[in-house]
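Subject: for your reference before the review

Hello V.,

The reviewers asked for a structural picture of the protein, and I figured it would be easier to keep everything in one thread rather than splitting it across files. Below is the amino acid sequence we used in the manuscript, unchanged from the supplementary table.
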Amino acid sequence: MAKGLETLIRLNEWSVDQKRRKLGEILRLIDGFEAEARKLEEDLLKEQAAAASSPNEAGFLYGYYADSVIDRRAIIQISIQQLEKEADEAREEVSKAYQELKKYETALEARKKREEAEIARKEQLVLDEVGMQAFIQKRA
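And here is what came back from the structure prediction:
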């Protein structure tokens, strides 16, 4: 029966690892979108500086650029929010899988302790019997 628990533990360890990888991928995607948002803001500041330095040439085009930046910023924010929800769900899945794994590990540990206690009890019975036989032989 301990073999069955060890197999369950290995399967659950694999499951926890898979769920952690999924969470890691989601978090990397969030980081990527946040980096893209920062780059977008930096580019916007550069364009604002360029438009301010030559308002006649860039002023007309800057409005279109600013609109596209606003749209891209909104899309990035929506994507980040969706990924945050997915990350929360993935964290919950990791937590549940980890709790399940710990349950099996605790059961295996308890089973091993019971088996060790039973072995120790049997060894003590044998030693008691040997001691009683030695006592009886000395008295005889």
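For the response letter, the relevant points are probably these. DSSP finds two helices and no strands in the chain. Helices lie at 2-53, 55-139.

Happy to draft the paragraph if you're swamped.

O.
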